[in-house]
Amino acid sequence: MSVVVVSSEVSIAYESFGDPVDPPILLVMGFGAQMLAWPEDFCRALAGRGRYVIRYDNRDCGLSTKFDDHPVDMGKFIATVSSGDIPAALAMVPYRLQDMADDGLGLLTALGIERAHVVGTSMGGMVAQTMALSSPERVLTLTSMMSSTGESEYGQSSPEAQAVLFTAKPADRAGYVAAAEKELVWASRRYGDATALRELAAASYDRSYYPAGIGRQLGAMILSGSRENALRDLRVPTFVIHGLDDTLINPSGGRRTAELVPGAELLLIPDMGHDRPRELWPQLIDAMVSHTG
After folding, report:
1. CA atoms of 105 and 177, how far apart (whole Å)
2. Tally of domains in the chain
3. CA-CA 20 to 30 A from 125: which of 180, 244, 246, 287?
4. To which H or E segment does residue 53 belong?
């Protein structure tokens, strides 16, 4: 693991796999999750198919820069947005998805990579879309996985998934790890793995327990608005992947993304939820290699 400075205020922690002479793939993780959620075995398998794979921690997560000077009370923020007081909500959050996209692009610059294939999952898909929209000359291809367009009428969460997402996890290690099982609510119904969820939670807790960043990342997502019109004009080759079991971001989010981006390819995967089950890695890796070939 290495850390590089990508701007005057942000340093990004990252790891790379494979040969730097191979086509680079930047993996962008989702809301509140560290780069560990791109499993090392997955990254090595993708690298073994002739790709130079880079995973990293978004700002406010893992071992990248934390914005401790800008505390956000998530409950208060949600209440403010729900009341329609958008100016007040904007004042609560110190950055937007564009800033997170700039972090990823800054990481590529720091690594001497002019152009890369960008793969983003969930919130990471929103960040990846923003990279492609703001700097298309630097994105060889875009893969948007289990994500959406920022339009409120697409990709909605089920009430059960939303309840789990917005319920604070216990602060003690044992409670935090046990609570991870609740994420089965949005996992693959066939392949959902409580043991794997607990193991990832334990590794994440030990590496960097940091719930304070969640409110700021949530604010960045909500306040960055819809990408509908911009996506209609996107000319970066785009591949959209979504699991049909996803209850955290309904598959309508993926369908809408593919509908908006000219020429986008859509892959809807049975038995995949808001997760990447090991049993589906061969299909996912084959699809990603084909799109980035």
Report:
1. 33
2. 1
3. 180
4. strand 52-56
